[in-house]
Amino acid sequence: MAASSEVMPASSESIVLRLFEVDAVKFGDFTLKSGITSPVYFDLRVMISFPQLMTDVANLLWDKISASKFISLCGVPYTALPIATLMSASHNIPMLIRRKEAKGYGTKKLIEGIFRTGDVCLIVEDVVSSGSSVLDTAEALKSVGVLVTDAVVLLDREQGGRQKLQQEGITLHSVFTMTDILTILKGAGKLDSQTVDKVACYIEHNRFQPDQTVCSLKPKVYDYEERAKLCTNSVTRRLLEIMGEKRSNLALSADVTTSQELLQLVDKVGPHVCIVKTHIDILEDFTQETVTKLSQLAARHNFLIFEDRKFADIGNTVLHQFGGGMYNISSWAHIINAHGVPGPGVVHGLREVGASKGCGCLLIAEMSSAGNLATGDYTTATVSMAEANKDFVIGFISVNNLTSDPTFIHMTPGVQLTAGQDSLGQQYLTPSEVITNRGSDIIIVGRGIYEAKDPVEAAKQFQLAGYDAFVARLTEFMTS
Ligand SMILES: O=c1ccn([C@@H]2O[C@H](COP(=O)(O)O)[C@@H](O)[C@H]2O)c(=O)[nH]1
């Protein structure tokens, strides 16, 4: 017997394990084109370097369909093209190629290959998320009179693509679902339960609606009460409950310089806010009585206190800065924040003091000031640091939504009713830009309130603008 003809058909399980080994399936933190962080990434392009694996994949796809129905097949460019070629050559079924753009010269064809009006063509694809790539190819085929009733895919990410395609009259046949991949890899000891849960949670919260425009993935928008129930961190849960009860996503930045001004301002504006943010070290007359009274106001008006100390030192130092000193911040602040620049030690040091006191920490992933350096890879690394410390890190100071994880809160400073800039580089966005368009959760407003002629009226205006902007985002999600 010739050795070359002795290749055994590969089992589906072994193919998943080989895809994992060659890094075609990866787990970690990946920023997608949409800006969303995904805990799983498929890069099936690497298969062209592993011809046997690619042949086995092509055979699995072929076994999934009843081929007699199709006159031709067409791979979605580019990853599925070699797979479709193998299926075509092995089973003697003609192939079509869809050009991504029609040629600007010669025949100007969108579809290459020989076809007749009414031919039924099978679409071949590697991964389906929203279904948009399959639909694009189907549209191109239909535009030349070729019918598409079915598509076969190696992996259905279970994010709504199947339903979307069905709605357009295309039945999806998938070799694997995301659940199959997780089950096989976990069973083989390649994934731990935590990773499996993280990916399952991500998929659950990032499904396309069947009738949603499928160009970009939008994370689900929850109302505050619904979202509070997803949170295990007591500070996040309490904050979301307050936001729901008070219909407020407004944080007052009370940057006044005497205790009297601070307490008077907070007593008046407290009913309209979910958070009062302090810079305790700018008070000229700080005493422990100031924070005792501030805590009483927090209880009376139902808000949380956020000390904007921006810790940024090694773990041992921040532990003392937070847990002691003249301000003794950990004895009265519900929320603090830190820069990621010293590395995870800063979070660990703060957690040693704050976790047992029920305090939560925000990481400063982006800033509002012009020319700031908290961008790009720095922001991405800060998000990873938060994800690795989810028991204590409750979210971000940022000017954009940075993760689809609904248990992280995004708070955005630099908010006024009209966009602009101050003379020292502070940049302002409007509540609707921050909440509706950029997907942040909380607007932080300082001078827009405490420098207004009537701070209470100003606070009411910001409360309304912020909440309306949230309702607009929720409505847009529900109706899109
Ligand atoms: O990137 C950042 C981080 C923090 N802040 C703080 O927010 C307030 C903004 O005050 P406004 O008067 O509304 O400008 C202030 O306490 C900053 O320290 C920020 O602005 N940008």
Automatic annotation (TrEMBL):
Quote the catalytic residue positions. D308, K310, D313
Which intervals hold domain Orotidine 5'-phosphate decarboxylase?
A: 249-462
Which GO terms fall under molecular function for this chain's record?
A: orotate phosphoribosyltransferase activity; orotidine-5'-phosphate decarboxylase activity
* Catalytic reaction annotation: orotidine 5'-phosphate + diphosphate = orotate + 5-phospho-alpha-D-ribose 1-diphosphate; orotidine 5'-phosphate + H(+) = UMP + CO2
Top-rank lineage group of the source organism = Eukaryota
UniProt: substrate binding residues = D255, K277, S368, Q426, G446, R447
Q: Does the keyword Transferase apply?
A: yes
Q: Keyword Electron transport, does the record have it?
A: no
E.C. no = 2.4.2.10, 4.1.1.23
Give the keywords, sorted.
Answer: Decarboxylase, Glycosyltransferase, Lyase, Multifunctional enzyme, Pyrimidine biosynthesis, Transferase
Q: Pathway involvement?
A: Pyrimidine metabolism; UMP biosynthesis via de novo pathway; UMP from orotate: step 2/2; Pyrimidine metabolism; UMP biosynthesis via de novo pathway; UMP from orotate: step 1/2
**GO BP terms, alphabetized:** 'de novo' pyrimidine nucleobase biosynthetic process; 'de novo' UMP biosynthetic process
Pfam families assigned: OMPdecase, Pribosyltran
Q: Which CDD domains match?
A: OMP_decarboxylase_like, PRTases_typeI
Briefly state the protein's biological role.
Bifunctional enzyme catalyzing the last two steps of de novo pyrimidine biosynthesis, orotate phosphoribosyltransferase (OPRT), which converts orotate to orotidine-5'-monophosphate (OMP), and orotidine-5'-monophosphate decarboxylase (ODC), the terminal enzymatic reaction that decarboxylates OMP to uridine monophosphate (UMP).
Q: Which family does it belong to?
A: In the N-terminal section; belongs to the purine/pyrimidine phosphoribosyltransferase family.
The UniProt subunit note reads as follows: Homodimer; dimerization is required for enzymatic activity.
User: What protein name does the entry list?
Assistant: Uridine 5'-monophosphate synthase
Native species: Candidula unifasciata
